[in-house]
Amino acid sequence: MLKDEQKNVCLITFIDAEVESVKGRILDIGAIKENGNPFHNASLGEFTQFLRGSEYVCGHNILNHDIKYIGHAIIEAGINPLNVIDTLYLSPLLFPTKPYHSLLKDDKLQTEDRNNPLNDSIKAQDLFNSEVAAFLQIDTTLKDIFYLLLNRTKEFGAFFRFTNYQSTKSDVESQIRLKFQSEICLNSDLAKIISENPIELAYSLSLINSFILFRKVHSITPPWVLKNYPEVERVILLLRSKPCLTGCTYCENALDIYKGLKKFFGFNSYRTYGGEPLQERAVKAAVNNKSVLAVFPTGGGKSITFQVPALMSAENSKALTIIISPLQSLMKDQVDNLEKNGISEAVTINGLLDPIERAKSIERIEDGSASILYISPESLRSKTIEKLILGRKTARFVIDEAHCFSSWGQDFRVDYLYIGDFIKLIQEKKNLENSIPVSCFTATAKQRVIEDIRDYFREKLSLDLQIFTSKASRTNLHYKVFEKQNEDEKYLTVRDLIEEKNCPTIIYVSRTLKAYKLADQLSKDGFNAKSYHGKMDKKEKTENQNAFLNGDTQIMVATSAFGMGVDKKDVGLVIHYEISDSLENYVQEAGRAGRDENILADCFVLFNEEDLSKHFILLNQTKLSIKEIQQVWKAIKDITRFRSKISNSALEIARKAGWDDSVAEIETRVTTAIAALEDAGYLKRGQNMPRVFANSILSENAQEAIEIINASKKFEENQKEQGVRIIKKLFSSKSRKETTNETPESRIDYISDHLGIVKEEVINVINLLREENILADAKDLTAFIKSTENKNRSLAIVELHSKIENFLLSVFKEEESIFHLKELNEEVEKNGCDGVTTNKIKTIINFWSIKNWIKRKNLDHFKNHIAVLCLQSKKQLKDKLEIRHELATFIVEFFYEKTITEKAKGQTDKDEILVEFSVHELKYAYENSSDLFKKEISIYDIEDTLFYLSRIEAIKIEGGFLVVYNALTIERIEQDNKKRYTKDDYQKLNQFYENKVQQIHIIGEYAQRMLTDYKNALQFVEDYFQLNYNSFLNKYFKGSDRQNEIRRNITPSKFKQLFGELSPTQLKIIKDNETQHIVVAAGPGSGKTKVLVHKLASLLLMEDVKHEQLLMLTFSRAAATEFKKRLLNLIGNAANFIEIKTFHSYCFDLLGKIGTLEKSADILNITVERIKNGDVEANKITKTVLVIDEAQDMNAEEFALINALMEQNEEMRIIAVGDDDQNIYEFRGASSKYLEQFIYDNKAIKHELVENYRSKSNLVSFSNQFVKQIQHRLKETPIIANQIDNGKIKIVSYQSCNLITPLVADITNTGLSGTTCVITKTNDEAVKVAGLLLKNGIKAKLIQSNDGFNLYNLVEVRFLLNKVDSGPDIYTISDEIWNEAKKELINTFHNSTKLEICLNIIKDFEITNPNRKYKSDLEVLIRESKLEDFYNENSETIFVSTIHKAKGKEFDNVFLLLEKFNLDTDAAKRQLYVAMTRAKHNLNIHLNNDYLNSLNAENLEHISNFEIYPTPDKIVRHATFEDVWLDYFINRQISISQLTCGEKLHIEGNECLNSNGQSVLKFSKKFIEKIKLMKLKHYELKSASVNFILYWRKEGALEEIKIILPELYFEIIDQK
């Protein structure tokens, strides 16, 4: 009872102190007596005097704060130290019901003043009076309970003494049981709780009493109570949420799972599955606070299983249930579905919410009106989420899609591995003795996955998960598989099945594009179909889903994203247009049919083995390889070289790791790699925690701040409203008694989350508040300056980027224009910007886009094209650039001056000096600098410039406003720079990927079994989920061959296609996926190209190599094209993504230039230098595998490029293929010594390919004998002939010269079948042989070269390019335009001898670009190719070629002309070896030397010819640019345009005339002299024809003209 208040004459003083907590210095004291007498002074002596006469002191949060500093003053004033009353502890006891007391927010007194202890003591007085009044109103029993529990405690004893309250009762337990007889568990051990936790019990009972009185009000225990009295959670659990065994009144009512189901969902009973009460058992276990693992099939009622216990916990104790799910879109659906049932207890916080929705969800969790929280695993990294969960009693964590924990599951996610650490963190921060229970749910899980999940929670949290799973299968589903050969068959079957069933249908496809196309096709055919996939616009997705659910749409064509959480009972048909990638997913997706157990539903699969191949390819593309994680680790080691804790964006890390930043889902891949490194202990990923704080309030009170905001001209209207909200928030959450380890509520992300204002806008407003001196300036930015660098480097970067920007500003327009990045790069370079790269241009374009200066978009399928339009006027942008350039220069100089100061402070020994600063400091420094021509600047300009300096990497800046862009906080744990991420570390991920491969094979096996034996297939599925995994494999994949088969990430038929026809040696090379450096020494005809093509296919399909990290370098565009053609034939469209380039083409690409053969002189040296200087885009040189073709042909520059790439990629595998015996390009510096050096330096493993598939047995034997004459050979084993039969070898030795005549005669007299080539040493000889063959009526073709001009300039080629050009902004070639261009080309040039070249270019282009044709690709093919690359092999025509042009080709019959062929050097021997090994069947050698006499072979005929042969009577010569008067063509353009290649010309003096007698060509003076010399040799120029018509531009001229290069025929002059 309360004593008579009239007699209560106790004097009380209300106090508050402001203390500098670090030093413990008292800054100010405020106090007020009950009679209104105030005190406001910092003097402790005066304060002591003021207190005298008081019996009690009272304040808010003074026991743990103020008393430490002013306690001795209280004692000195004669006050008993036990007579201290703290309103903080009384508040939860006396105001347990929301909205609580208006003066309170959690543990803080609400104030609008900055620092005013007198005001706070007055508020404490008001609060205390309210508390006394509230206590008086409580019923007597509850008063007695509180008194009996608390009167002896430090926190409450003084309150009872002051109020003179004493209870006449002594047995508190009986009082509690009386008061709460049907509201708490009768069997709870109250005596123990009373004894051990009286305060916690009192708080709990106060809240329970509130539940009884205000059932509809969501009242919760304040977060500070949970933090300081963690046992409150356990006490409330024991009283309200732990069912007793015997069953008391409370437990039978409140904890009855059937009543809960009826109450919340209206159902009378739980769903059974195959007669088993799974749902009921799992709910009961959860209500009993057990941790559970439930494997519930699709439609098994998973949601209700965790929602019923969650809602019961919410009602009984206002405890929070956290549901973690990877599917953000489903969270919203679950919340919406609950609301449809009238349940508003659930909210979601995820990335799909706008800031206001997010803020509302946070508010509802904080105030207790929501008790179910749906979040993603990524959200656990948020400090806001952590604070939210710490502020509520936690009932349970529910983890959906729990198979994601297991590397044996179908969707292992590394970010799931953090969940256990997060729960542990929460338990530790809450000081909980008992673990928070966990519920795990998955729809399908085999035994190994179940074991993994249980082991994870056992190890991480010491939890033993009870398993709830059913062995029963759905009885109302009928399964069937149809084998279909192609798309057409599939589509027709789908139509038939839909028509036959005529019911709600889901059709599953594996790609988003397919969903659109198939739905569209069905709609056109009159079916009511819509599409659905995860990447679809939210609005369209919702509309389509609702249309299907309410029956407006009958057919849903969807990816696997559709159906999760969607409960449509009448789906009668599920068709898998492409089979799923695992049995787990298939069973889950098929299970969306027949949710109504009363209907029979069909589940059909349209099976084609090629669909499995697509799954394997997709797996390879999405797989995170060990190499990629190593690259991220290398990048992080680099970034953390000077400091172990960093903030970076995922994109920055990706670029640093050398990843192609255009790759899909790149940020997810980076965070997954970081999660893997975290799991292996290399680093710790911090919570996404910006270091920006809006603290240090300068305004005296909120009103003063608001007045300044409203009067300010710096704030825009919407910013004023935001500023007022932010300042109120800061005042309301301000506490001078904050403990140092608490997260300040002034953090930017916290303000953003709570007020629903995006972070950028919060930062802008905070900066304005600082400018107006409402908030103090904060040095929240840090510049990191390398002590080894001087400011000139940074200034040079600023200067270069400024020049680039000024150039871009001159070319960008205010209407959308398309730019080719390489062309742009070249133009910028021409304008004096040395050091420009496409990457620097992209950095600026990205920056301008972020700042909203331009709108940019990457064009689909165009890596090098970009569309840009200016969003602001050129004048505005020019002014902004000027300001920014001036500021950038100033800031760089400012920082470097600061480093001198910092060094003086003792940062001298550091590699990197930290300069802390603020944007205001910079603004002030600039405005007070001595520059006379300063520009007027704003805070935005400073931020803009800092962001710019950070982006262009002039200076590394972190913190402040940049937190918006740098979301990842990483702390490096492993400090050893040599430590690499290992195979052991990768084990979990590797296990997952290996398992995924097996899952694809297993689903394929299921489909095959379904085709033949229905019952066996169903048993197969059941065994998969029920048997131990090894037992399952041994039962269905017997023997090592089958078990090896399912470990390959390729289908058996694809494996056979790839490797079935290879020799053991070839297979050994292809299967070697471990050796880092491999050299394949490949003899002629050994299938080198085939091995390389199959190795590339194997790398892409079977090894951990992504197409963007695979590079193949060749020496000719023809070789690159040949590889691409063969790859396309072998692996289809995947071949288009492999980078196969010539050395020069790759270098042009690295430098962002458009390559031509003419420009290639010094390109390799420049590229190597740029790579070494770090001036090349990392993603273009970061490779995991490099393949080099014809490696023996490397020269010093090419070898330097290889070494530069190796230095950039420590782990890169290199496969170099070549034959040192065939190095015949010494004239360009090529030497096999570089290949030997590569082997020696890298201890490369050498494989020898010595089986010759090309040549007959005796030809191989002959060339083996010859090649022994070459010194220092790589191959030790002689070449072995694959063919056992012999061809014919004929050697004709002559005494005389002029061997062309007898050689041609020999050809004429030999009965030839198959292809034939005459091979000569010189081009001159080849021209003469071709001429003589033609004169003798033999169809012959000279393999010409385009030395001196580019194929691009051929008139026929240019005609084709012009015809496919639809305008500057259209970069693709439509099929219609392509076909029309081909037709016109043939019509116009049907008589041209160069038409064949053009048609072969077209053919190669069509083969290598089967899907989409780009103008730029066609142009690159043409510019980088040579004429000799495009000749058809033809058995009717005899080809004539030099040795160099014949390399790489093969012919049935080869005739070698070795006139005066000197064999003194190894170089000459190698040339002859190359020539003789071109022959497949017959080899004929005509020579006037005896060096082949010693060679023997079967079927070799050696003929000696002693005849003397005269010079040929006719000689052909091909004119070059030097031979014609180029200027003469200027006035002959009309006549030239009427000519075609091959057309006859008439010689008249020094001119050539057309058929109309018009002069079209004049010889140069130099060539006229050559004609005279020929005359002296008795040859006269008799006739000519058009060899080439070319475009040519004279230096300095604006336009090109057409010129003619003729073929000239000299005939011997009759000497009679």
How would you describe what is shown here?
The chain is 45% helix and 16% strand. With 1616 residues, the protein is of the alpha/beta class. The strands form twelve sheets. It has a seven-stranded parallel β-sheet with strand order 10-11-9-12-13-8-14, with helices on both faces. α25 packs antiparallel against α39 (987-1012), α27 (650-656) crosses α28 (666-679) and α55 (1355-1364) packs antiparallel against α56. Mean pLDDT is 87; it is low at 1-8 and 739-743.
Care to give the gist of this entry?
The protein has about 1600 residues and is α/β, with parallel strands linked by helices.
Keywords for this entry:
1616 residues; 16% strand; seven-stranded parallel β-sheet; alpha/beta; single chain; 62 helices
